[in-house]
Amino acid sequence: MPIDLFRNAALQIAAACLLAFPIAVQAQSDPQPSKLDSTGSFAPIVEELLPATVMIRTYGGYAVAGKNTSGHALAQDDPTSPEPSGTSASGFIISADGLIVTNAHVVNGAGSIIVSLLNGRSYEGILIGQDEHTDIALLAISADEPLPVLGWGNPDSLKPGHRVVVLGNPFGLGLSATEGIIAGLDRDLLTSPYDRFIQIDASVVSGDSGGPLIDAGGYVVGVNTAMMSWCEGCTGMGFAVPADLAMEVAAQLLENGRVPRGYIGAQSQPLTPGLATLTDAQGQAGEIITRVEPASPAMAAGLQPGDIVLAVNGTHVTATQHLVELIAGLPEGSVAELSLWRNGTPSQQAIRIASAPAGMAMQEPQSEVELSFFGLVLAAVPADDETRRELAIPADEKGWLLVWTGGAERPGSLAPGDVITHLDGIPLPDLAAFRTAEARLASSRKDAVLARVWRNGSALFVPVWSKSVHRSVKSGSFTEE
C-alpha cells in the first residue's frame, strides 16, 4: 500500500483512539490487582505483554540524541554515526490497528523505520508525529490481522518502592525484561519545561528507549526514555515519561501530527523562601518571571522580570514548571487572567495566548574582572552570534560569564558557567555599568542581593551573598530557611 494512502488510513483511526485513550486511563485510576505469580514474579506479565512490545530499527540520517543534563550523560541510542546496520530501539502497540508509541529521539531524522514483532514479522513504520518537548513519537504499521495491545495505566497511583518491569530491546539483542522499583516521581532533569519523569532503579540501556514501563497490574505506567549515569560504564538511574502525559501527547499527535501548546513568551522559576524574602513576597506561592521575550504576548501585557505569577484563570501556580503547564493547556487566541504579585502588591493582568517556539547550549571566557565585594570572577561575554548560541543567550541579553565563585558555591546560588545579566536589578551591558553596579553594591553593604542569570538556556533569579556571609558559611554559622 502506498505510504501516503496508508498514512491517511492510519489517521482515520483517530476518532476511536482519541475516545479510547482517556477511557483507558480512567478505568485504571485506582491501583489494580497484582498479576504477579505466587512467587511474586513478573513472569506471567512479561509473557502476556512481550508480544505487544516491538523492536524498532531506524536507517538513514542521523538519530537524534536523547535528553542531556548539565554534563551528566544520559545513555541512549548512540547518535554519533549513521551506521549502515541501523539504530535499535523499542516501542509498544496501543491499537489493534497498528499505532505504536516510542521516543521522539528514536525516530527523529530517520530515513526509514522498521518495526519487528516478537513473532518475527517486520513492517515498515510510518511516522504520524513526534513531540521533542516530551520525547514522545507515534508510529503506525499496517498488519493483515489485529495486533496485541498494551493498556494504559495510571502513574498517579505509583509510589516509591512499587515494583515495575522495563520491557525493551537492549543493545538490539531482542525483547527482554528488567525488574526494578520506583525510585522517585516528578523528576525534573531540566531538559524541557515539561519534565516530570518517573525515576526507576531498573536498568534502561541503549535500545530500551521507547519501550513500556509496566506496573504489577500489567499496565503501562511510563515510556522508558533515558539513563543518567555519572561516568561511562557506571550503573545509573532510569527515567520514564509518565503514561498520562505520553497518552495525551499520542492523542494530540494522532489528531494534529503535533502538540499545540499555549505560549506567552515568558520564562519563570519557582518562588523559593529565599527569593520571596528578597522580592518582598513572603507568604506568597507561585513562580517568578525571569525573562520576557521581545514582541511576545507577555511583553504586550506588560509583564516584567521579577513579577510573581500566583494563579492562571484562578488556578494556583503551585509546583515546579506548573505555570508552563497551565499556559500550555490553553488554546491559541484565548485570553487568560493572571494573578500577579509585583513590588509587594497583588494585581490582575489579562494576557492573550499565542502558539509556541523552542530551545538552545555553553562556552568560554574572554577578559576577566573581579566583583570584589562578592568574591566573584567574571568574563565579558563575546558579542558574536556563534558564542551566544553556545552560551544559550538570546541576542538581546548582555551580561558576564561567571568563571569563579570564590569557592563559596551554595545550593540555589551562582555556579561557574552562569551568565549574569543583572545584579540587584541593575543591568550589566558593559564594563562601565558593571563598575557602577559594583560601587553601588559595595556602598550598600548588603549581605545578599538577587542576580538574574542565564543557565542552560533559561533565565533564573538566584541569591548572591557577600564575602562576609561567605566566610560565615564556610565556618558553619550561617543557616538558611
TrEMBL record:
Family annotation (Pfam families): PDZ_6, Trypsin_2
Signal peptide: 1-27
One annotated GO biological process: proteolysis
Keyword Signal: yes
A GO MF label: serine-type endopeptidase activity
Domain PDZ: 285-322
Hydrolase listed as a keyword: yes
Family annotation (InterPro entries): PDZ (IPR001478), PDZ_6 (IPR041489), PDZ_sf (IPR036034), Peptidase_S1_PA (IPR009003), Peptidase_S1_PA_chymotrypsin (IPR043504), Peptidase_S1C (IPR001940)
Keywords on record: Hydrolase, Protease, Serine protease, Signal
EC number: 3.4.21.107
SMART domains for the chain: PDZ
PROSITE patterns tied to this protein: PDZ (PS50106)
Record family assignment: Belongs to the peptidase S1C family.
Protein name per Swiss-Prot or TrEMBL: Putative periplasmic serine endoprotease DegP-like
Organism: Leisingera aquaemixtae
